[in-house]
Design goal:
The complex is a heterodimer of chains A (687) and B (603). In chain A, 31% of the residues lie in helices and 26% in strands. Chain A is α+β, with helices and mostly antiparallel strands. In chain A, the strands form nine sheets. In chain A, strands 19-14-13-22-23-34-33-30 form an eight-stranded mixed β-sheet, with helices on both faces. The longest helix of chain A is centred in the first third of the chain and has 31 residues, at 205-235. In chain B, helix 7 packs across helix 8 (207-230). Chain B contains 15 helices and 22 strands. The chains are: A alpha+beta (687), B alpha+beta (603). The interface between A and B is large, with 67 and 92 residues.
């Protein structure tokens, strides 16, 4: 049976079909923001048509769909979520507004002329009630049920459709939160209720409360979407398994996701790194930079030894989201990024983007030069075959827009286009360097895997700036997230905060925490038909040196702790710390904070069909040539263009060359050679 | 001018910005001091060999904006005896041109092909620096030596090897030596990282190109800032701000006064009318005064420049600080409270003057520090602790066009320091929090109002101990509102013992007993513009949000808001706003510990 992945992005809905034979088929439809299920079924409809089947006939033969969606992120960023109320410990209702004192999250300390942070839940909908739990888990004050009912009634009367229950120290004992949640649900069964410790049972209330509020804010929208999608699929004859892509890089059945909606943030981008690990492995590479450059943003993920990193330090827009998310830092750099000259006379590109409307000047509406316009002036992208000819580009308009930037820099239009191209590459290269440094890696040890519609044009040039010798551009570059979803394991993550210094760590207590998490996992997986023998368990613990404030997550040797495994754990911690920060302090005692258990049901590995190398020359795939400008050169170079669809494994071209496809173009700049691998990916090597 | 291509220029410029961000990230990830790691009381940066600022990072103005003077001090001390792998430590306000003793700076010269090209610095507030009492901010020391260990520029690493005997001498003179050692290693490792990064940039682009780019960066920033200054009408604009007292002579305000003269494309910032150097510990050393003054000036300029400031931005600005004044004390004056007491007033007085120079880019005063140092024994571990935090400070002042946000604090740091979490406080310290919220009416009203003032209450569940309010201010001298906006309200601290409030003024040390509750009521930010010009709908929303009371809406804003529906009564509002506005002030009742709006000067 076939498997599908469907990634609903901001502009396009991507559908990938993996046939029984291991062949991949790609389909794209426009995203339909008002009801994303329409775009979803349109993309599946295209797939059905390709196979000569009706939608129902096609879907009835699909075994599994993995689905990523930008709906959660978009709902949050565009502030279209539910009216949320918050019930919290009396006396502490402002922590989500104070935001730990952060004034300017994304900008400079010298900029004070900015609007104040606007929390998702305004103050009049944040109500305190009498209750108190201590950090030990001891219940100091029971929940005042009468006060709770009064608060809930006020919020319901005000029209709240979601309520976040956020009590101090609920990670240590969730009893009061659960009691409050039950009472609210009894009063209003239709309202979406979230208890902070169920979303994130981890200490530090600002981070936990903010995450719970975000979850409540997007919860109702995602719940409605999920139910519409499920019924739509059922109506169209689908009886396979529908899995959702989660922020933490795992997939899960829909019904287990909607109560923890925050996990559906970043649901698409979280999958792209898996595509990189899969493709890297085909070439024996495990140190990978997975990058995805689309119209407005550039995402990067640093994969060391095949391990996809996660972080609990994310912000989405202006809001703190402290669940573990695949660590995909992003910067405003894409094909639509606008070029401008600042008051210092410096050329800057981005973070403002021309977006889809008006789009780059070449699209025929905008005036300002975007990266796509520079790429067009330089001859890298085809005016007549952009997105397979779906969009006709206006070369003269692009030329004019770039010339306007050049006038301010006193540079020719050609030099300005090169400057824009190099500047945006630098912005992306700097992000890559910064992300690598944070994790203590040298970027030159990595292979770049470049996805996204604009990735192929820029990847080799970024690699050259970073002294990276090898670039892989996947056949599915423009659908990288959708491809990554094939490789994801089904799973959940569990956590228990338990603050202990090294000398006061009780081995039995830790072992008990893991037993508790394992039991919860077994219950959760039983609901979706899995037994213990089908699961794999990965225990980790967050540790730090005594009195530090930032933790390092370490793999536990096992779920039971004893004197011997403790020694091993400490050894791993010191080594890891040294690697990250260039020094370690084994003379210093350590502390243990949050114990975590990741439970997965490994999925069947993807088997893609390999093709035989061809003996025919690459000229069979030649589709023409374009006149291009390259860095340092002032004369246009007649550059051969090849058709990716007609290129066969074993084909080789030397840069400069271009490879066109109906979803993207790949630039092989001078100084790079390009070879087609058995899976029709392009491998670019610096000469 | 060397002919540099614009792309290399922009690349080099951004590389240095990235570098300082990475440095800050590394040091906050690895340090253990609450102030450095959680509250971000730490600064980093990169300077040329002559002390010119290359890249301004995030940090505390007083810790890094004046580093050129510290670098000059290091060069004077060591002359040619600076070598690759050296790290120099100093915290001496006089010989090392620093702020106050707790802020230790590790300075590393960066050589390339045998030539000294750069210096890098990590400076952060240490958990302890010796002296009479743990933590810092204790008044009444007889001189700088009594305030703590005073380290002139001293080589502590040579050839990247620790001079263990020297460091042991230093650690032997601080409390919690192991903890300070952890932080010192984190700081030194961060300077080593900076050196590695700078070398990469130099190797990639070549020394000549990089140095030419830096020259061009500085020149361009200078041109841009001069153009901004030229847009301001020539003239002298004055501002002032006061701190409650100097900690030794109590209840007598100490004034910082500034005259900012704009002439063409240059600015002179003259503090000559400020008070003379004090006996108490509020004096702010010259390098720190310079730093806060020029850093505060940066708000005047186009926000698009904000990330791009460097030495060029500072060149058009001349700062005059008469020796022997509170902004330029002479050895051996005490300086323990420099950053908060006189330091914040330098910032506020400059903002006060700038609001007159560019009335459409005005910022009102921020809530003042309500700091303290509590020291006692934690019965859970039997170990001594010192607790200090920014949690209970008031919030930001309003700016033209926007209300002040509730949360951001510490104008002297331009809000780079942070608040912690109640859960973190309770795990770390034997205190239980009872309340931590914005308080109704506890901010300066205005067309754009200040961010909320904070009410904070916590009970001591540990042993008997001490609370020193050395880092508090604002009981007597709240900061101004601007253009008819109300000032930041007064602040108060109380100890509730057996249910009875005992007021504790700034710069005092009091006993704290088991079971005592400390109550801090901190005024929020000041307002900008007349409150009667505020949109009635926004006033009604503030009432609904319990940020403004129905009473204050009526008296101060001239808006009649229905207490149940929160609807604006337009007729009544029109009538109220037609009357001349009364004079009101925000007052804290010292028995009931409540906030109320009363006729001005009635107490």
């Amino acid at each position: 049976m076939k498997q599908l992945t469907i990634d609903v992005g901001g502009t396009f809905t991507d559908c990938l079909v993996l046939e029984e034979s291991g062949q991949l088929q790609r389909f794209k439809a426009s995203t339909t923001p008002d009801d994303p299920t329409q775009g979803f079924f349109a993309s599946v409809g295209k797939a059905a048509a390709h196979f000569g089947q009706s939608l129902n006939g096609f879907l009835s033969e699909v075994e599994q769909i993995v689905h990523g969606t930008t709906l959660g992120t978009n709902t949050l960023i565009t502030e279209r979520g539910a009216k949320v109320g918050m019930i919290t410990t009396k006396g502490f209702r402002d922590s989500v507004e104070m935001r730990r004192g952060i004034k300017n999250l994304h900008g400079s300390m010298f900029d004070v002329f900015i609007p104040p942070y606007k929390p998702l839940v305004p103050r009049y909908l944040r109500l305190g009630v009498e209750e108190r739990t201590l950090y030990t888990g001891e219940l100091l004050t029971p929940l005042d049920e009468q006060e709770l009912r009064t608060a809930a009634k006020k919020l319901l009367d005000d029209g709240c459709t979601a309520i976040a229950v956020c009590f101090l120290h609920s990670y240590a004992n969730g009893a009061n939160e659960l009691q409050a949640k039950r009472l609210v649900q009894q009063m209003a069964p239709q309202v979406y209720v979230t208890a902070s410790h169920e979303i994130l049972p981890v200490w530090r209330e600002f981070e936990r409360f903010s995450t719970a509020v975000v979850s409540a804010y997007i919860g109702p929208v995602l719940t409605r979407y999920a139910s519409r999608l499920q019924s739509g699929l059922a109506d169209h004859g689908f009886h396979g398994r529908l899995l959702m892509m989660l922020a933490n890089g795992l997939v899960q059945v829909v019904d287990e996701c909607v109560d923890r909606a925050v996990y559906l943030l970043n649901s698409g981008p979280a999958a792209a790194p898996s595509a990189a690990t899969y493709l890297g492995a085909l070439h024996g590479r495990t140190n990978l930079l997975s990058v995805d450059m689309g119209g407005t943003s550039f995402d990067v993920c640093v994969i060391k030894d095949g391990e996809i990193p996660t972080t609990s330090e994310s912000w989405v827009g202006e809001h703190r989201v402290a669940i573990k998310m695949v660590d995909v830092p992003t910067v405003g750099a894409g094909g639509g990024s606008l070029a401008w000259v600042d008051s210092l006379g410096l050329l800057r590109v981005g973070p403002q983007s021309a977006g889809a409307d008006p789009g780059p000047a070449a699209y025929g509406k905008g005036e300002q030069a975007a990266v796509t316009d520079a790429d067009l002036v330089l001859g890298y992208i085809p005016a007549d075959y952009f997105l397979g000819g779906d969009i006709k580009l206006d070369a003269a308009r692009a030329h004019q827009a770039v010339a306007a930037v050049g006038a301010k820099l006193k540079m020719s239009v050609e030099n300005s286009a090169q400057a824009i191209y190099t500047t945006i590459n630098t912005v992306m290269a700097n992000l890559v360097t910064e992300v690598c440094t944070k994790q203590g890696h040298d970027v030159r040890d990595f292979t770049l895997v470049a996805g996204g519609g604009a990735g192929g044009i820029h990847a080799a040039s970024i690699a050259r700036q970073l002294s990276i010798p090898m670039v892989i551009v996947p056949r599915v570059a423009a659908l990288m997230s959708a491809f990554g979803m094939f490789a994801k394991d089904l799973g959940f993550e569990y956590a228990r905060s338990c603050f202990r210094s090294q000398d006061r760590l009780d081995f039995a207590e830790v072992t008990g925490l893991y037993a508790d998490m394992r039991a919860q996992a077994l219950r959760d997986f039983a609901r979706i038909g899995f037994t213990e023998s089908q699961l794999s368990f990965q225990p980790t613990v967050e540790m730090r040196y005594a009195d530090q404030f930032h933790e390092v997550e370490i793999d536990m040797p096992s779920e039971t702790l004893n004197a011997q495994s403790m020694q091993e754990l400490l050894r791993i911690f010191h080594a890891r710390y040294e690697k990250m920060y260039t020094y370690s302090m084994n003379w210093r005692p350590v502390e243990f904070l949050t114990f975590r258990l990741k439970v997965t049901a490994p999925r069947r590995p993807v088997q893609m069909a390999a093709s035989q190398s061809t003996s025919a020359g690459v000229e069979t795939a030649r589709r023409g040539s374009r006149s291009c400008l390259f860095q340092g050169g002032s004369l246009r170079v007649d550059t051969p263009v090849y058709d990716w669809d007609r290129m066969e494994p074993g084909h080789k071209v030397a840069g400069p060359a271009l490879v066109d496809d109906k979803t993207t173009t790949v630039l092989v700049p001078p100084g790079f050679n390009c070879e087609v691998d058995p899976y029709r990916n392009l491998v670019l090597l610096a000469t | 001018m060397t002919d540099i291509d614009p792309i290399t220029l922009s690349t080099v410029w951004h590389s240095f910005q990235t570098l300082v961000r990475e440095m800050r990230h590394m040091v906050t990830r690895t340090s253990q001091s609450y102030l450095m790691s959680q509250l971000k009381d730490v600064s980093v940066g990169l300077w040329l060999a002559d002390g010119s600022t290359v890249a301004m990072p995030q940090g505390l103005l007083c810790q890094f904006m004046g580093t050129k003077f510290a670098i000059q001090a290091v060069k004077e001390q060591f002359g040619d005896d600076l070598h690759p792998g050296d790290v120099i430590l100093t915290n001496d306000p006089y010989k090392g041109m620093t702020v106050h003793l707790p802020d230790w700076g590790f300075i590393r010269p960066i050589f390339f092909e045998g030539e000294l090209l750069f210096f890098t610095l990590v400076r952060g507030h240490q958990q302890d620096t010796g002296g009479s009492f743990p933590g810092g901010y204790f008044p009444n020391s007889i001189d700088i030596h009594a305030e703590g260990l005073c380290i002139p520029p001293t080589k502590v690493f040579e050839n990247d090897k620790e001079r263990t005997d020297v460091m042991k001498l230093i650690w032997n003179n601080v409390r919690w030596p192991e903890a300070v050692r952890v932080d010192n290693y984190a700081m030194v490792a961060t300077t080593r990282f900076a050196e590695k990064r700078v070398h990469e940039v130099l190797r990639r682009y070549g020394k000549e190109t990089v140095m030419a780019c830096i020259k061009e960066m500085l020149d361009r920033s200078e041109r841009a800032v001069r153009a901004e200054i030229s847009a301001i009408p020539d003239g002298t604009y004055s501002g002032q701000a006061a701190t409650d007292d100097d900690g030794t002579i109590l209840d007598e305000p100490v004034w910082v006064r500034v005259d900012i003269t704009v002439k063409g494309d240059a600015i002179t910032v003259d503090f000559s009318r400020s008070d003379a150097q004090r006996k108490g510990f509020v004096n702010c050393p010259f390098a720190a005064s310079y730093a806060i003054a020029v850093g505060s000036m940066m708000l005047l300029f186009d926000p698009a420049l904000a990330d791009y400031h460097n030495e060029g931005s500072l060149r058009p600005i001349t700062v005059i600080t008469p020796p022997g004044s509170v902004v330029h004390p002479l050895y051996p004056a005490t300086v323990g409270a420099a950053p908060v007491n006189v330091g914040h007033q330098i910032a506020t007085s400059v903002h006060d003057a700038l609001a007159k120079a560019r009335p459409n880019r005005a910022m009102a005063a921020w809530g003042k520090r309500r700091g303290d140092y509590v020291s006692s024994i934690d019965p859970r571990s039997g170990r001594p602790y010192v607790r200090t935090t920014f949690d209970y400070d008031g919030s930001a002042g309003a700016v033209t066009g926007h209300d002040g946000p509730t949360g951001p604090l510490s104008i002297g740091s331009l809000a780079t320091v942070m608040r912690s979490n109640a859960e973190e406080m309770e795990i770390r310290f034997p205190w239980r929090l009872l309340k931590w919220e914005a308080a109704t009416d506890l901010m300066g009203a205005g067309r754009w109002r200040g961010g909320g003032g904070i009410e904070w209450r916590a009970t001591n569940e540990g042993s008997d101990g001490r609370m020193a309010t050395g880092s508090s201010d604002g009981d007597m001298t709240p900061g101004d509102g601007i253009q008819g906006g109300y000032p930041s309200p007064f602040s108060r601290t109380f100890v509730l013992r057996d249910g009875k409030p005992i007021r504790v003024k700034p710069h005092r040390m009091v006993e704290i007993k088991t079971g005592d509750t400390v109550v801090k009521i901190s005024g929020g930010g000041g307002g900008v513009g007349n409150p009667t010009d505020r949109s009635p709908e926004l006033v009604a929303l503030d009432v609904k949000n319990e940020m403004v009371s129905v009473d204050s809406a009526r008296k101060v804003y001239g808006v009649a808001v229905d207490p149940v529906s929160f609807a604006v009564n337009e007729t009544e509002t029109k009538r109220l706003r037609a009357q001349p506005p009364g004079a009101w002030e925000v007052s804290i009742d010292e028995q009931k510990l409540t906030v109320e709006v009363i006729p001005a000067h009635s107490h």
